[in-house]
Prior knowledge:
This protein is an alpha/beta fold and 493 residues long. It has 3 domains: 4-170, 3-Layer(aba) Sandwich (Rossmann fold), CATH 3.40.50.300; 193-376, Rossmann fold (3-Layer(aba) Sandwich); 382-460, GMP Synthetase, Chain A, domain 3 (2-Layer Sandwich), CATH 3.30.300. The chain has helices at 15-23, 68-82, 98-110, 127-132, 152-173, 183-188, 214-222, 275-283, 299-310, 328-342, 362-376, 382-395, 433-446, 470-492; strands at 4-9, 41-47, 50-56, 85-91, 114-119, 142-143, 179-180, 202-207, 240-246, 249-255, 286-292, 314-320, 351-353, 408-416, 420-425, 455-460. It has a 6-stranded mixed beta sheet, with helices on both faces. α9 links the parallel β11 and β12. It starts with a strand and ends with a helix. GO terms for molecular function: GTP binding; hydrolase activity.
Amino acid sequence: xxxxxxxxxxxxxxxxxxxxxxxxxxxxxxxxxxxxxxxxxxxxxxxxxxxxxxxxxxxxxxxxxxxxxxxxxxxxxxxxxxxxxxxxxxxxxxxxxxxxxxxxxxxxxxxxxxxxxxxxxxxxxxxxxxxxxxxxxxxxxxxxxxxxxxxxxxxxxxxxxxxxxxxxxxxxxxxxxxxxxxxxxxxxxxxxxxxxxxxxxxxxxxxxxxxxxxxxxxxxxxxxxxxxxxxxxxxxxxxxxxxxxxxxxxxxxxxxxxxxxxxxxxxxxxxxxxxxxxxxxxxxxxxxxxxxxxxxxxxxxxxxxxxxxxxxxxxxxxxxxxxxxxxxxxxxxxxxxxxxxxxxxxxxxxxxxxxxxxxxxxxxxxxxxxxxxxxxxxxxxxxxxxxxxxxxxxxxxxxxxxxxxxxxxxxxxxxxxxxxxxxxxxxxxxxxxxxxxxxxxxxxxxxxxxxxxxxxxxxxxxxxxxxxxxxxxxxxxxxxxxxxxxxxxxxxx
Length: 493
């Protein structure tokens, strides 16, 4: 998905009808009665060759108290802040109402990019309403009929250049991962950790279950109430990035929606409630897995941490709400033991305790993030690797399945971000997974690479006899030569 598009407007202007047409199925409830949609609904939209995330919103009502319409309005305003593009719908048959002008002013101030569309514009009866829409000062309105599918080509023409722009932006912001090393870099093994700059800040994703305190944590880092928080679970609905200076280090932090258990992250990565969180993990260099101190290491926490490891990102585990914990030392000891037991693939990853509400432990969190980033970029000289490999093999030789001895001959580091190693060996397909884990754990301890994902690949290199096959080849050539001589003799006769 290259960008997100929020459909906003007064109640009953056809937002949900357009949403259903863009996603290609009836996801949103549609009725002639206004105010049917009360919450944000996301879907994967396709218009021609453009794919994007579309957000259906509640109808904007000019209320500012604590009533339900006012709360719905605030939620819609949040969608306006989150979305890359806002599609402002007006009713071409009804014409402009005072609320349309109020909301146009809100969008002009808050939205990143606004597209104006006059819906229900089929037939001559809508001409006056379409012309009236020019008065909003939001550019030329697109003439749409969401119910009949008219005007989709015009909407495509407007979105196409914006789509290209957002795809370029996404490519620029994506971090370099699986960075290949040259032979010279592998031999030297010099650790060169990229220094974050304002143009290329360190990218951090904060992920976790709903109500773990992700938005509160980022507000504490910012020093202001930038993100909406509250006791209710699931307030954040979209991945929001915030760029800031964190203790002198330029960073971009992604606040993500809580990943719920029923979303089945492992099997269905594109579930609507977690898809932006997945994308945030892919755009991050360091992933902070935020746990609730009261209920840490739930099944969903483990799935989230495992997802970050499989994506090859540096991982830091932060335990939030530590200020309300009574027996801190005993709980911390138990947490470390549990962490080693339930997440062996992240053995040694930093585990820090924080309180997003009070701000305690944030300095330790920054230190852990920078340490994890440095390890993620670590390089090990080839000479050291091969000396270490010899010691590991001498201490615990690889097995000989079916009597075939496996020889580990040579090792080098091929990639960083995360560290990736290649071992040249005989019969790589017969080397058991347990022996690979033995080598990975040894790499972590010997070269100080705790917690970071390590990729270890076995590549075949058999014993090559330079004379193997030459005898058969020479015999074949001699036979062919003798045959040609016999043919010549037969011809002379």
